[in-house]
Amino acid sequence: MENLHAINEERHSIMLVLDEIEQMYRSLDKVEQTKKINKMQEDWKNLLKIAQTVDKDISIPVKNETDKTKDKIKKFEESLKEYFMGLKKESFYIYKTGIEDSFKRINEVNKSIEEFETKLKDYEYYAKMFNFPDEVIGCSKNLDMIKSEILAVSNLWNHIRKCDA
Asked: Which residues does the chain have with pLDDT short of 50?
């Protein structure tokens, strides 16, 4: 996709450069180089035609994948919201759970956060590739809320550990 857009953006500047080089060789009576430049110009025109054809051929599948990816990102954002809300029901919020059991569960949640971060990086890549990078902002915010919540709970249990010692 990016290469097709680059070809379309650069088509006029590349043709201009090729035309300038052709004029230079013509003025210097360099027939062989002029023929090479003419061949390059024809190759460039053919590449532009191919790029247009490919762009038309892939536009529908790209749109379908874009829609699927947007849906996946929305679902991921919702799952992060649900996970955050579920944190309030976790055992580490209850003092009776104890320091060791609370830290075991906090470590499990941290592993889940790592998995979420990996998924988010993938979605950020896809969002950038399909030109909708703002779609993952909600996911990032939700993940940041989860991280800050776990950090606060972890700090609380560290403080309790320090006070009990």
From this structure: none
Indicate the domain borders of the chain. 2-164
Closest CA to 134 of 74, 68, 57, 60: 74
Which pLDDT tens digit goes with each residue over 44-54? 888 888 888 88
CA distances from 156 to 96, 105, 153, 161 (A): 14, 14, 5, 9
What is the pLDDT at residue 39?
Answer: 87
Q: Please give the DSSP secondary-structure letter assigned to residue 131.
A: T
Handedness of CA 140, 146, 149, 151 (dihedral sign): negative
User: Contact at 8 Å (CB) between 41 and 15?
Assistant: yes
Report the SS3 class of residue 45: helix
Cα–Cα distance measured from residue 165 to residue 161, given in angstroms and rounded to the nearest whole number: 6
